[in-house]
Amino acid sequence: MYFIFDTETTGIPHNKSAPITDLDNWPRLVQLAWQLHDAKGKLIARHNYIIRPDGFDIPFKSEQVHGISTRRAQEEGHDLKTVLEIFISELGRTQVLVGHNIEFDINIIGAEFIRMAFDPAKFLALQKIDTGIVSTEFCQLTGGIGGRLKMPRLHELHQILFGKDFEDAHDAAYDVAATARSFFGLIKRNVVSPFDATPVSAIEYEEPNLDAGNSGKREKKTDVVYDSNVTADLSDKQFCHLHLHSQYSVLQATADVKEIVAKAKAEKMSAVAITDFGNMYGAFKFVAEALKHEIKPIVGCELYIAEERKKLKFTKDNPDKRYSQVLLAKNKAGYHNLAKLSSTGFTEGLYGIHPRIDKELVTQYKEGLIALTGGLGSEIPHLILNVGERQAEEVFKWWHNLFGEDFYAELNRHGIPEENRVNETLLRFCEKYNVKYIAANELYYL
Fold first, then answer.
1. What local confidence, expressed as pLDDT, does residue 83 receive?
2. In terms of Cα–Cα distance, which of 180, 177, 243, 200 is closest to 377?
3. Alpha carbons 44 and 38: distance in angstroms, whole number
């Protein structure tokens, strides 16, 4: 028996080589589908389940991939423990697992086994066939690391075998069917040997009816779109840039400090800030130029915050994890603390070109500083889009508790769906915790 399966999840792990017992590292299961075929390809059973979220949300980025929202999963989802019990009972009928990039799916399910107090040992001990690995030589796709051949994606393998793509990629049920079709296709091409002594000529893949049973078509992707017909009179509201990068954000921004001040003057702004990445190289020149033109200078910095600022050795599977954090000095003490944070980032946390600090240092040197939620590269927006709103809310509360009235949500709008989703979520957090917010436009160019 061949047990062919696939998952859809809340995202990807930070460390791909972490053990499945590191539950904080491994994403949650959103959809689980499998097909069971006998040695000749006859379809014995098929299952497809959306999982009801319990203690987690499905983030925006993941929803955009597989089309399953938190709302849909709550309405249509099944209890995880019940699904895993069915999954385990079916595993007893097979000797070999088949999947595409199978280690990822095994780790996802293995972590869920542990969360549900199931022993994953028998599941992990089964023989495994990865249709991606076994077909690499057959597909002959260039572009791999070090000039080697690249492992094909599922749609690439399907295209090479059958001359066409397949319907609804990134829906677990359709991905399983495509994997099964490709697996038996590889057997027919003598790329993979049958698990037992079944003659290749006797093998014929039986296609399932994917519209039958509990397989539901995916939700149509919907973006949060700003309604341009809704207008408000803001002519009496003064706007000042509080998230702006100058030429001192090396290799990332181009705006000259003198040109920034001149532009602010021309736009009749009473104040302007600079928030360069990791450094305060332009602070002295910026303050002097702004005061010369009777504009209030606001000195800030967009610092890189890492989990461990002194950890400087990382691997491909466990890369440096850091977020950017906008901090503004509101007085002399804040300026000195901001300078201390920036300097410590270079002396204790420099990794490559990134001077990194951590939350311990922020807690130590928070006096006189204002914190913003930042742009898409900051922690709270990242969690909203890639992990879940519950986790984002916990971090939102951490910054609010630390900075109190000096913590503001930052709203950016550049016409992209990700920012619209972040803004919508931040405004709900602000209302819930009585936090003020500001309009920004994270600038890199004049």
1. 95
2. 243
3. 7
Residue 302 and residue 243: Cα distance in Å, rounded? 8
User: Which pairs count as long-range contacts for 349-354, CB under 8 Å and 24+ apart, including other chains?
Assistant: 349/304, 349/306, 349/309, 349/310, 350/312, 351/306, 351/312, 351/314, 351/320, 352/320, 353/250, 354/278, 354/304, 354/320, 354/322
Phi/psi for 303 (5° steps) reads -85, 155
Strand partners, 43: 37
Strand partners, 31: 8, 50
Domain boundaries, the chain: 2-202, 257-439
Contact 310, 348 (CB under 8 A): yes
**Does the structural domain 2-202 have CATH classification 3.30.420.10?**
yes
Partner residues linked to 355 by β-bridges:
350
**Which residues, 6+ apart, have CB-to-CB distance to 214 below 8 Å?**
47, 48, 49
**Six token digits for residue 156:** 């690439």
Pairing outcome for strands 369-372 and 354-357: unpaired
Structure tokens at 5: 């399966």
Better-predicted residue by pLDDT, 202 or 289: 289
User: Domain 257-439: which topology?
Assistant: TIM Barrel (3.20.20)
Cβ-in-10-Å burial (0-12, 13-18, 19+) of 445 comes to: exposed
Per-residue pLDDT band for 276 (boundaries 50, 70, 90) equals very high
Judge if 2-202 and 257-439 fold alike in CATH terms: no
- Rounded CA-CA distance 108/166 in Å is 24
**In contact, 172 and 9? CB cutoff 8 Å:** no
**DSSP letter at 286?**
H
- The tens digit of pLDDT for each residue in 156-192 reads 999 999 888 877 667 888 999 999 999 999 999 989 8
Between CA 54 and CA 295 the distance in angstroms is 52
Strand runs labelled E in 51-178? 96-99, 127-130
Token pair in block for residue 198: 């079944």
Closest CA to 244 of 232, 256, 231, 226: 256
Question: What is the per-residue DSSP string for 217-261?
Answer: PPPPP------TT-----TT-----SSB--TTSTTT----HHHHH
Side-chain half-sphere of 128: how many Cα atoms within 13 Å?
17
- Return the amino acid letter for 256: D
